[in-house]
Amino acid sequence: MSFIETTSVEKEKPIKLFYEDYGKGKPVILIHGWPLSHRMWEYQIETLVNEGFRVIAYDRRGFGDSDKPWEEYNYDILAKDLHDIIEKLTLTQVSIIGFSMGGGEVARYIGKYGTKKLLKAGLISAVPPYMLKTKDNPEGIEEDIFEGFKKEIRKDRAAFLENFGQQFVNFEENKDKVSKQQLHYCWTIATKASAKATLDCIDAFGYTDFREDLKKFDIPTLVVHGDADEIVPIKTAGEKSDNMLSNSTYKVIEGGPHGIVFTHKEQVNKIVVDFLKS
Q1: Which residues pair with 21 in a beta bridge?
Q2: Helices 195-207 and 143-168, packing angle to 10 deg
Q3: 1 pLDDT exceeds 90?
Q4: DSSP string across 110-145
Q5: From 38, 83, 258, 264, the catalytic residue
Q6: Helix 265-277 and helix 42-50: axis angle, to 10°?
Q7: Is 39 helix (H, G, I), strand (E, B) or coil?
Q8: 156 labelled catalytic
């Protein structure tokens, strides 16, 4: 198993992140969504490697096979973890692609560290620019939704994750595109995460404002969103990100739920490959 020791420590020991590194060519880092792990990218990794890219997929702290510290699940720290990966692997001309919560790492990394090591960026079903409903963000999501997530997780995390997984892919509308077995597999990935990380990351993706970060994007950026996303609505996120970015390619997946990497994987894969090769 491959691990990177980050510059963050807990109890005098460095936080280690698990990663997989496949293929040769221009590097692409895939950043997973909540509450999954790098394993969610199974159907994208093979395609990207076969198309001639070096693919690096890692587990966010608290998830998958990475260390599970008790504290520090805010985006400044998560972006620093991404920075550590890029530095430790001495990557340049790298493209970073984030799904859902992972789009926050993409945004905050660029906001804090710039784009000198980057070639392109990607936001798939991603949470930027700002999820929370406020006076200046009326298309956002009510705070009660995020607090309700936390309440249900504390009550019965396994049951919450099963129900969330169905909403993740709009299961009733997409039974022909995704199986119950796939949902169960995703459930097993999610249950392996730290309960504390699962809770704390709700505050991270729910309450973090990325609007200033998006202003610092100066590289080609792909924005992909399903117009039937019930988790991160397109008008809250994808549409607004596209409007804020100066050099974006915007692709809307008709009928696509949040988990388009599962239900519309061939379509998403073609969009990503075409963008990376353009």
Answers
A1: 56
A2: 110
A3: no
A4: HHHH-STTEEEEEEES---SB-B-BTTBTTSB-HHH
A5: 258
A6: 40
A7: helix
A8: no
Secondary structure of residue 231 in the 3-state scheme: coil
**Listed residue (82, 116, 128, 109) closest to 232, CA to CA:** 128
Angle at 58 between CA 57 and CA 59, to 5 degrees: 140
8 is catalytic: no
As a whole number of angstroms, the distance between CA 227 and CA 84 comes to 34
Which of 273, 262, 114, 230 minimizes the C-alpha distance to 251? 273
Exposed/middle/buried for residue 138 (C-beta within 10 Å: 0-12, 13-18, 19+)? exposed
Six token digits for residue 249: 């390619």
Active-site annotation holder among 100, 125, 241, 248: 100
The C-alpha angle 251, 209, 140, rounded to 5 degrees, equals 65
Q: 187, 165 in Cβ contact below 8 A? A: yes
CA dihedral 253, 255, 258, 264 (to 10 degrees): -60
Match 């309450």 to its residue by tokens: 207
Would you state the structure tokens that stand for residue 57, as one six-digit string? Answer: 């997929």
Q: Give tens-digit pLDDT for 112-169.
A: 999 999 999 999 999 999 999 999 999 999 999 999 999 999 999 999 999 999 999 9
Q: Distance (Å, rounded) from C-alpha 68 to C-alpha 139?
A: 33
Within 10 A of 220 (CB to CB), how many other CB atoms are there? Answer: 18
Write out the H or E segment, with its range, that includes residue 147.
helix 143-168
Q: What is the mean pLDDT of residues 42-52?
A: 98
User: Residue 213 pLDDT > 90, yes or no?
Assistant: yes
Q: State the catalytic residue, choosing from 59, 229, 242, 264.
A: 229
246 is annotated as an active-site residue: no
Task: Please compute, for residue 166, the number of CA atoms within 13 A of its CA located in the half-sphere on the CB side.
Answer: 10
Tokens 């950026």 correspond to what residue? 221
Q: How far apart are CA 147 and CA 154, in angstroms?
A: 11
